[in-house]
Design brief:
Keywords: DNA-binding, Nucleus, Repeat. The protein is mostly helical. The chain has three domains: 9-61, Arc Repressor Mutant, subunit A; 72-126 and 134-152, Homeodomain-like (Arc Repressor Mutant, subunit A); 158-228, no CATH class. The chain is built from ten helices and three strands; from the N terminus they run αααααααβαββαα. It has helices at residues 19-32, 40-44, 50-61, 72-85, 89-95, 101-124, 139-152, 184-189, 215-218, 230-236; strands at residues 176-177, 197-200, 206-207. A hairpin with a 5-residue loop joins β2 (197-200) and β3 (206-207). α5 packs across α6 (101-124). The protein is elongated. The chain binds a DNA duplex through residues 1-6, 14-17, 36-38, 49-52, 54-56, 58-60, 68, 87-90, 101-103, 105-107, 109-111.
Amino acid sequence: MVRQPSWNKTCLKKGTWSPDEDQKLITYIMRHGIWNWNEMPKYAGLARSGKSCRLRWMNYLRPNIKRGNFTREEDETIVQLQKMLGNRWSAIAAMLPQRTDNDIKNYWNSRLKKRVVVENNSVSATTPATEINSGVKSDSDSLFLDTLLDSLIPKLKDFPEPATCTFSPSGSNHAAVVDNTCSMENNFVSSEKCWEIQSFSDNDCCQALSPNSQLWLYEPIYECNSNYDPVDDFWDSPFI
DNA sequence: AAGCGCGACAACCGCCACTCA
DNA sequence: GTGAGTGGCGGTTGTCGCGCT
Protein backbone atom coordinates (compact mmCIF):
# COMPACT_ATOMS: atom_id res chain seq x y z
CA MET A 1 0.00 0.00 0.00
CA VAL A 2 1.23 3.45 -0.86
CA ARG A 3 0.72 6.40 1.35
CA GLN A 4 -1.12 9.35 -0.07
CA PRO A 5 1.11 12.21 -1.07
CA SER A 6 0.71 15.15 1.22
CA TRP A 7 -0.46 18.64 0.42
CA ASN A 8 -0.09 20.00 -3.07
CA LYS A 9 3.51 21.13 -3.30
CA THR A 10 3.05 23.14 -6.47
CA CYS A 11 1.46 26.13 -4.77
CA LEU A 12 3.70 26.37 -1.74
CA LYS A 13 4.94 29.74 -0.65
CA LYS A 14 8.64 30.34 -0.10
CA GLY A 15 10.72 33.08 1.41
CA THR A 16 10.48 35.12 4.56
CA TRP A 17 7.70 34.31 6.96
CA SER A 18 5.18 37.04 7.66
CA PRO A 19 3.94 37.79 11.20
CA ASP A 20 0.55 36.49 10.14
CA GLU A 21 2.03 33.15 9.09
CA ASP A 22 3.98 32.96 12.34
CA GLN A 23 0.81 33.56 14.31
CA LYS A 24 -1.06 30.90 12.40
CA LEU A 25 1.63 28.34 13.06
CA ILE A 26 1.92 29.24 16.74
CA THR A 27 -1.82 29.20 17.22
CA TYR A 28 -2.17 25.87 15.51
CA ILE A 29 0.60 24.18 17.45
CA MET A 30 -0.65 25.63 20.70
CA ARG A 31 -4.05 24.15 20.04
CA HIS A 32 -3.18 20.85 18.45
CA GLY A 33 0.44 20.14 19.10
CA ILE A 34 2.79 18.71 16.54
CA TRP A 35 1.35 15.65 14.89
CA ASN A 36 2.63 15.65 11.31
CA TRP A 37 4.71 18.42 9.82
CA ASN A 38 3.67 17.68 6.26
CA GLU A 39 -0.04 17.69 6.95
CA MET A 40 -0.05 20.44 9.52
CA PRO A 41 0.33 23.46 7.18
CA LYS A 42 -2.85 22.55 5.37
CA TYR A 43 -4.91 22.57 8.53
CA ALA A 44 -3.12 25.60 9.91
CA GLY A 45 -4.06 27.58 6.83
CA LEU A 46 -0.47 27.92 5.68
CA ALA A 47 0.74 27.56 2.08
CA ARG A 48 4.09 26.31 3.30
CA SER A 49 5.89 23.01 3.13
CA GLY A 50 6.08 20.92 6.24
CA LYS A 51 9.80 21.31 6.22
CA SER A 52 9.49 25.06 6.17
CA CYS A 53 7.03 25.00 9.06
CA ARG A 54 9.23 22.70 11.07
CA LEU A 55 12.27 24.87 10.50
CA ARG A 56 10.41 28.04 11.42
CA TRP A 57 9.04 26.49 14.59
CA MET A 58 12.23 24.80 15.70
CA ASN A 59 14.51 27.73 15.04
CA TYR A 60 12.40 30.78 15.76
CA LEU A 61 8.91 30.30 17.13
CA ARG A 62 9.08 27.68 19.82
CA PRO A 63 9.31 28.96 23.38
CA ASN A 64 12.50 29.37 25.39
CA ILE A 65 14.71 30.17 22.45
CA LYS A 66 17.49 32.65 23.00
CA ARG A 67 18.60 34.43 19.87
CA GLY A 68 21.57 36.64 19.13
CA ASN A 69 23.76 38.25 21.79
CA PHE A 70 26.08 35.31 22.29
CA THR A 71 28.00 35.67 25.52
CA ARG A 72 31.73 35.26 25.81
CA GLU A 73 31.15 31.97 27.63
CA GLU A 74 28.95 30.72 24.81
CA ASP A 75 31.57 31.78 22.29
CA GLU A 76 34.20 29.76 24.07
CA THR A 77 31.89 26.77 24.42
CA ILE A 78 31.09 26.79 20.71
CA VAL A 79 34.72 27.08 19.74
CA GLN A 80 35.70 24.24 22.08
CA LEU A 81 32.87 22.00 20.92
CA GLN A 82 33.48 22.73 17.27
CA LYS A 83 37.08 21.80 17.79
CA MET A 84 36.06 18.50 19.39
CA LEU A 85 32.94 17.60 17.42
CA GLY A 86 33.44 19.33 14.10
CA ASN A 87 30.43 20.81 12.30
CA ARG A 88 27.93 18.71 14.18
CA TRP A 89 25.74 21.68 14.94
CA SER A 90 22.85 19.75 16.40
CA ALA A 91 25.21 18.11 18.88
CA ILE A 92 26.74 21.45 19.73
CA ALA A 93 23.30 23.02 20.12
CA ALA A 94 22.35 20.26 22.53
CA MET A 95 25.14 21.48 24.77
CA LEU A 96 23.94 25.06 24.65
CA PRO A 97 20.47 25.29 26.16
CA GLN A 98 18.09 27.63 24.34
CA ARG A 99 20.32 27.93 21.30
CA THR A 100 19.39 26.38 17.96
CA ASP A 101 21.71 24.57 15.60
CA ASN A 102 20.93 27.01 12.81
CA ASP A 103 21.72 29.99 15.00
CA ILE A 104 24.98 28.47 16.14
CA LYS A 105 25.90 27.50 12.60
CA ASN A 106 25.26 31.01 11.31
CA TYR A 107 27.15 32.54 14.20
CA TRP A 108 30.09 30.25 13.57
CA ASN A 109 30.16 30.88 9.83
CA SER A 110 29.81 34.63 10.10
CA ARG A 111 32.00 35.39 13.10
CA LEU A 112 33.64 32.65 15.12
CA LYS A 113 35.27 30.87 12.19
CA LYS A 114 37.13 34.00 11.20
CA ARG A 115 38.22 34.64 14.73
CA VAL A 116 39.48 31.08 15.15
CA VAL A 117 41.39 31.29 11.89
CA VAL A 118 43.08 34.47 13.05
CA GLU A 119 43.90 32.93 16.43
CA ASN A 120 45.19 29.74 14.83
CA ASN A 121 47.41 31.75 12.52
CA SER A 122 48.89 33.58 15.46
CA VAL A 123 49.35 30.31 17.36
CA SER A 124 50.76 28.44 14.38
CA ALA A 125 53.66 30.84 14.30
CA THR A 126 54.88 29.24 17.52
CA THR A 127 53.18 25.82 17.48
CA PRO A 128 53.82 22.81 15.25
CA ALA A 129 50.98 22.31 12.81
CA THR A 130 50.39 18.75 13.97
CA GLU A 131 49.25 20.00 17.34
CA ILE A 132 46.58 22.18 15.78
CA ASN A 133 43.30 20.54 14.82
CA SER A 134 44.88 17.15 15.08
CA GLY A 135 41.47 15.66 15.78
CA VAL A 136 42.75 14.05 18.95
CA LYS A 137 40.99 15.15 22.08
CA SER A 138 43.32 16.44 24.74
CA ASP A 139 42.76 15.81 28.43
CA SER A 140 41.57 19.37 28.83
CA ASP A 141 39.06 18.84 26.05
CA SER A 142 37.72 15.72 27.71
CA LEU A 143 37.47 17.50 31.03
CA PHE A 144 35.65 20.37 29.37
CA LEU A 145 33.17 17.99 27.77
CA ASP A 146 32.62 16.07 30.99
CA THR A 147 31.97 19.25 32.93
CA LEU A 148 29.59 20.51 30.29
CA LEU A 149 27.67 17.28 30.14
CA ASP A 150 27.42 17.11 33.91
CA SER A 151 25.98 20.61 34.05
CA LEU A 152 23.35 19.68 31.49
CA ILE A 153 22.08 16.56 33.19
CA PRO A 154 18.86 17.65 34.86
CA LYS A 155 18.80 17.31 38.60
CA LEU A 156 15.61 16.11 40.28
CA LYS A 157 15.44 19.20 42.45
CA ASP A 158 15.33 21.35 39.36
CA PHE A 159 11.86 20.16 38.55
CA PRO A 160 8.79 21.19 40.52
CA GLU A 161 6.06 18.71 41.25
CA PRO A 162 4.01 17.96 38.18
CA ALA A 163 1.02 20.23 37.95
CA THR A 164 -2.45 18.83 37.79
CA CYS A 165 -5.16 20.35 35.67
CA THR A 166 -8.16 21.57 37.56
CA PHE A 167 -10.32 22.26 34.58
CA SER A 168 -11.78 20.11 31.90
CA PRO A 169 -10.70 20.54 28.30
CA SER A 170 -14.28 19.88 27.23
CA GLY A 171 -13.66 16.27 26.60
CA SER A 172 -11.08 16.90 23.97
CA ASN A 173 -7.57 15.65 23.76
CA HIS A 174 -6.25 18.91 22.42
CA ALA A 175 -3.10 20.47 23.67
CA ALA A 176 -3.65 23.58 25.70
CA VAL A 177 -1.87 26.06 27.86
CA VAL A 178 -2.18 25.57 31.58
CA ASP A 179 -0.70 28.75 32.91
CA ASN A 180 -3.83 30.80 33.46
CA THR A 181 -1.90 33.93 34.24
CA CYS A 182 -0.99 34.64 30.68
CA SER A 183 -2.69 34.41 27.35
CA MET A 184 -1.62 32.11 24.57
CA GLU A 185 0.08 34.97 22.80
CA ASN A 186 1.83 36.10 25.96
CA ASN A 187 2.99 32.59 26.52
CA PHE A 188 5.07 32.82 23.41
CA VAL A 189 6.08 36.43 23.57
CA SER A 190 7.42 36.21 27.09
CA SER A 191 9.10 32.89 26.90
CA GLU A 192 10.86 33.31 30.23
CA LYS A 193 7.76 32.42 32.23
CA CYS A 194 6.31 30.12 29.71
CA TRP A 195 4.50 26.97 30.68
CA GLU A 196 4.40 24.45 27.99
CA ILE A 197 1.68 22.88 25.99
CA GLN A 198 0.01 20.18 27.97
CA SER A 199 -1.21 16.88 26.77
CA PHE A 200 -4.44 15.66 28.18
CA SER A 201 -5.00 12.07 28.95
CA ASP A 202 -8.34 10.35 28.98
CA ASN A 203 -9.09 11.19 32.59
CA ASP A 204 -8.53 14.87 31.98
CA CYS A 205 -5.47 14.98 34.15
CA CYS A 206 -2.22 16.07 32.73
CA GLN A 207 1.45 16.19 33.40
CA ALA A 208 3.25 19.46 33.16
CA LEU A 209 6.80 20.12 32.23
CA SER A 210 8.71 22.59 34.26
CA PRO A 211 9.25 26.00 32.67
CA ASN A 212 12.91 25.19 33.07
CA SER A 213 12.61 21.76 31.56
CA GLN A 214 15.08 21.14 28.80
CA LEU A 215 12.86 18.39 27.50
CA TRP A 216 10.71 21.01 25.88
CA LEU A 217 13.66 22.36 24.02
CA TYR A 218 14.21 19.21 22.10
CA GLU A 219 10.92 17.47 21.71
CA PRO A 220 7.68 18.56 23.28
CA ILE A 221 5.58 15.74 24.58
CA TYR A 222 2.23 15.51 22.90
CA GLU A 223 -0.42 12.94 22.95
CA CYS A 224 -2.46 12.49 19.87
CA ASN A 225 -5.68 10.63 20.12
CA SER A 226 -6.02 8.20 17.27
CA ASN A 227 -9.64 9.28 16.92
CA TYR A 228 -8.66 12.88 16.58
CA ASP A 229 -9.58 14.35 13.25
CA PRO A 230 -7.74 17.59 12.55
CA VAL A 231 -10.15 18.44 9.78
CA ASP A 232 -13.07 18.58 12.18
CA ASP A 233 -11.11 20.62 14.62
CA PHE A 234 -9.91 22.97 11.93
CA TRP A 235 -13.45 24.00 11.06
CA ASP A 236 -14.41 24.29 14.72
CA SER A 237 -11.43 26.46 15.50
CA PRO A 238 -12.34 29.88 16.87
CA PHE A 239 -8.89 31.18 15.97
CA ILE A 240 -9.32 30.94 12.24
C1' DA B 1 20.67 60.17 -4.27
C1' DA B 2 22.22 56.04 -6.46
C1' DG B 3 25.02 52.15 -6.88
C1' DC B 4 27.88 48.85 -4.93
C1' DG B 5 29.98 45.63 -1.67
C1' DC B 6 29.76 43.34 2.49
C1' DG B 7 28.13 41.09 6.70
C1' DA B 8 24.52 38.90 9.22
C1' DC B 9 20.82 36.19 9.31
C1' DA B 10 16.76 33.61 7.42
C1' DA B 11 15.40 30.06 4.65
C1' DC B 12 15.98 26.46 1.20
C1' DC B 13 18.04 22.24 -0.77
C1' DG B 14 19.77 17.77 -0.92
C1' DC B 15 20.93 13.93 1.43
C1' DC B 16 20.35 10.30 4.77
C1' DA B 17 18.18 7.33 8.24
C1' DC B 18 14.17 5.66 9.86
C1' DT B 19 9.30 4.22 9.74
C1' DC B 20 5.39 2.38 7.77
C1' DA B 21 2.23 0.15 4.54
C1' DG C 1 11.84 -7.03 1.15
C1' DT C 2 10.60 -2.82 -1.06
C1' DG C 3 9.38 1.76 -1.97
C1' DA C 4 7.27 5.99 -0.42
C1' DG C 5 6.73 9.31 3.30
C1' DT C 6 8.73 11.76 7.07
C1' DG C 7 11.97 14.06 10.08
C1' DG C 8 16.53 15.71 10.95
C1' DC C 9 20.91 17.50 9.65
C1' DG C 10 24.52 20.25 7.40
C1' DG C 11 25.75 22.94 3.44
C1' DT C 12 24.42 26.49 0.62
C1' DT C 13 21.88 30.29 -1.16
C1' DG C 14 18.82 34.28 -0.80
C1' DT C 15 17.53 38.50 1.36
C1' DC C 16 18.01 42.53 3.85
C1' DG C 17 20.23 46.34 6.07
C1' DC C 18 24.07 49.23 6.44
C1' DG C 19 28.14 51.73 5.29
C1' DC C 20 31.06 53.50 1.80
C1' DT C 21 32.03 55.76 -2.53
